[in-house]
Inverse folding.
């Protein structure tokens, strides 16, 4: 029944009983929109559409505009599960002699469409990408002071968008553009969500995913096609001709399109994300039964790299690249974001006395040379000179990046914790420096009701506001409330985190985590905010933060690759047989995945699991942490021209840098990935166990099997499939301890250390 007629009838009746019954039936039937299905066969000249033939969605014969004859076969299966799902297989078989440069599509047209519907493709489209647009070359920024705005709306460079200011908008993507090949929407008016999921490809390559919106007509169409045909492909700063090619078919050839449809009631965008979290791995199962390098070898390689190739004795600092290899400041040292004041933490956790000494010298330079009068720190420099922020050269007007400031506020106090553990003195100037920075954030909050995205490093005023660039700031302030026994820090941390939750998380995305994407939706701010929620929970024990973390978790997961991409056999990652599941997408602007979270270990996901037993968090962390060692170059498994211990940034599933660079474009090592890798292997155990709950999770590149678990004894078989000896850390606790005790990888009573030789298997009994 048409939804408009339903509404007229409902409101014409005065009988409340009948009204209630009708509303109940409406909910059960999910009539929030009218859905029309159709098929099309399209002909192309290169990537340009010439003409097409539309047909009803049914089995039978089609004669296209070129008078070629086809048979269409449609199979559908209602899957009996907790998730409402229908699986489809649509087969277009050519009956005529040949058809050249042709592609097929399946269309879902929705009437009663509202432009307020939340349109979603994981890692590339959030809220239809209906944001403000600033068109410019990379790296985009508000270079002209006239463009600054304390209340800057979410702003992106040129990206695929449904264009909020125009009647019509169209997005056409390759399935490789998404972390999960899926497109969906949530309808606030209809209180429904709809979702189409597919696998990456068929024999003709990736699928196309197309979304068209016509606002005045109240119509939208979602389409899946094969092969992928786009007029243009998205690149770093706009669009280019796609280079997509349709197929030439002979009699009897078949184009097969497979997908699943999910349709469910939804009272908010949270419900859409909850459904996404349930289904993101259903069609593309993955195996983690592989091992490249154990965590202990990752640490050995990378620590050696940093002590031999990243320490600059002349300036007493760890640099982002080999000393002397770069002259631009952004490649020498940065405070936060890309690892400058973060990479030193794992050295305090795992390092030798020499490394601890170097870390102290490094921190001393930061505290003695970079703090400005505002209390904020200069966030970029060459070791002798420092400035607020910038890319290749410092910005003109003293701007500094709030993300970098928040990273240091938080991570410096993590350094303090480790120094206390090592019984090392924390210099009073360091403590006073962090207090001044915390005070600067409090001042920002009290004046503006936010902490901005870019602030003046000298006077502390906001230059450019809006976004969740300061997502990690609540975590830093929460720790500062303990470091200095100052309640006002915790009050601001609470208020700021809640603002981020209300203004962004509940809208379905976070923004502005990287410094060079304007304020596009991104993964870095999402994971940074998750870190803040869990830090606030640790400090306050207020379960509100667990509830808000639960809502944020699927948004974080939307950036994480859920399947193993079929890389071209001749690509760098194809030759290495790389498993892409667990790679983390950067943003809608920088359209690539990367080996890790920027710039975190994912430790907060483990903390969340310990508090909630939410298996989704553990599954997500396992994918990220287990896959990371694949991207670290070694002598016997080199990655392109990277030196041992270096890590490539790009995990290219999309062709944003050219089709030839899918699975490639290994242009050099990347400091933030190096930092994230070092944090991961020092902050996470090899194996995590809650014995009484029979929970055994392996993050390391090991294969673990539970042989028995009874009489207060658990026996494991631990296999090391790699070519390196593995020093294995097992974190063992009870479910009660997980809920009541803080997590610490340095907590000796809970850590059992064993060695498993290369390509050997041992049995271990735990009491």
């Amino acid at each position: 029944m048409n939804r408009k007629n339903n509404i007229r009838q409902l409101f014409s009746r005065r009988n409340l009983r009948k009204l209630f019954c009708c509303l109940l039936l409406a909910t059960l039937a999910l009539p929030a929109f009218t859905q029309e299905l159709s098929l099309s066969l399209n002909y192309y000249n290169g990537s340009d559409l010439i003409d097409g033939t539309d047909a009803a969605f049914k089995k039978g014969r089609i004669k296209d505009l070129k008078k070629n004859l086809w048979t269409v076969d449609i199979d559908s299966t209602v899957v009996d599960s907790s998730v409402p799902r229908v699986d489809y297989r649509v087969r277009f078989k050519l009956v005529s002699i040949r058809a050249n440069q042709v592609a097929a599509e399946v269309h879902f047209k929705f009437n009663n469409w509202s432009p307020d519907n939340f349109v979603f493709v994981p890692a590339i489209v959030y809220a239809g990408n209906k944001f403000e647009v600033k068109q410019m070359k990379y790296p985009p920024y508000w270079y002209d002071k006239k463009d600054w705005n304390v209340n800057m709306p979410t702003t992106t460079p040129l990206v695929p968008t449904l264009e909020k200011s125009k009647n019509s908008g169209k997005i056409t993507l390759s399935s490789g553009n998404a972390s999960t090949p899926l497109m969906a929407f949530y309808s606030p008016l209809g209180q429904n969500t709809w979702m189409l999921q597919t696998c990456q490809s068929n024999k003709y390559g990736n699928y196309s995913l197309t979304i068209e919106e016509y606002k005045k007509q109240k119509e939208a169409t979602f389409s899946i096609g094969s092969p992928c045909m786009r007029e243009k492909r998205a690149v770093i700063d706009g669009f280019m001709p796609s280079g997509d090619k349709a197929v030439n078919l002979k009699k009897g050839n078949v184009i097969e399109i497979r997908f699943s449809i999910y349709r469910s009631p939804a009272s908010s965008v949270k419900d859409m994300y909850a459904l996404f979290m349930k289904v993101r791995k259903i069609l593309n199962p993955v195996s983690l039964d592989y091992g490249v390098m154990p965590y202990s070898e990752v640490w050995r390689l990378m620590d050696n790299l940093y002590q031999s190739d990243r320490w600059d004795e002349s300036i007493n600092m760890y640099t982002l690249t080999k000393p002397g290899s770069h002259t631009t400041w952004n490649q020498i040292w940065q405070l936060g974001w890309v690892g400058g004041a973060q990479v030193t933490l794992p050295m305090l956790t795992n390092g030798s006395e020499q490394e601890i000494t170097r870390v102290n010298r490094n921190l001393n330079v930061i505290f003695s040379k970079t703090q400005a009068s505002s209390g904020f720190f200069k966030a970029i420099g060459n070791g002798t000179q420092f400035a607020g922020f910038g890319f290749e050269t410092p910005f003109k007007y003293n701007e500094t990046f709030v993300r970098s400031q928040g990273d240091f506020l938080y991570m410096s106090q993590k350094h303090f914790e480790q120094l206390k553990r090592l019984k090392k003195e924390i210099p009073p100037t360091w403590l006073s420096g962090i207090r001044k920075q915390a005070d600067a954030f409090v001042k920002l909050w009290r004046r503006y009701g936010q902490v901005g995205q870019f602030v003046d490093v000298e006077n502390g005023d906001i230059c450019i506001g809006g976004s969740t660039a300061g997502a990690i700031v609540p975590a830093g302030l929460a720790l500062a409330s303990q470091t200095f026994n100052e309640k006002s820090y915790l009050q601001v941390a609470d208020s700021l985190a809640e603002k981020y939750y209300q203004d962004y998380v509940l809208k379905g995305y976070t923004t502005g985590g990287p410094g060079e994407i304007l304020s596009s939706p991104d993964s870095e701010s999402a994971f940074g905010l998750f870190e803040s929620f869990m830090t606030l929970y640790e400090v306050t024990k207020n379960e509100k933060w667990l509830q808000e973390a639960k809502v944020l978790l699927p948004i974080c997961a939307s950036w994480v690759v859920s399947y193993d991409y079929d890389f071209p056999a001749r690509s760098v990652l194809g030759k290495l047989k790389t498993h892409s599941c667990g790679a983390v997408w950067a943003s809608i602007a920088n359209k690539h995945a990367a080996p890790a979270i920027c710039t975190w270990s994912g430790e907060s996901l483990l903390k969340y699991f310990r508090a909630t037993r939410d298996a989704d968090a553990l599954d997500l962390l396992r994918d990220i942490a287990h896959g990371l060692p694949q991207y670290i170059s070694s002598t016997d498994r080199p990655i392109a021209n990277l030196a041992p211990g270096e890590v490539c940034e790009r995990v290219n599933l999309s062709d944003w840098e050219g089709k030839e660079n899918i699975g490639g474009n290994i242009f050099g090592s990347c400091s933030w990935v190096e930092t994230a890798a070092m944090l991961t292997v020092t902050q996470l155990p090899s194996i995590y166990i809650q014995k009484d709950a029979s929970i055994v999770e392996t993050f390391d590149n090991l294969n673990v099997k539970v042989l028995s678990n009874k009489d207060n004894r658990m026996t494991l078989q631990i296999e090391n499939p790699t070519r390196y000896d593995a020093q294995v850390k097992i974190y063992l606790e009870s479910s009660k301890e997980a809920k009541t005790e803080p997590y610490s990888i340095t907590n000796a009573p809970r850590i059992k250390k064993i060695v498993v030789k290369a390509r050997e298997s041992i049995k271990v009994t735990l009491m």
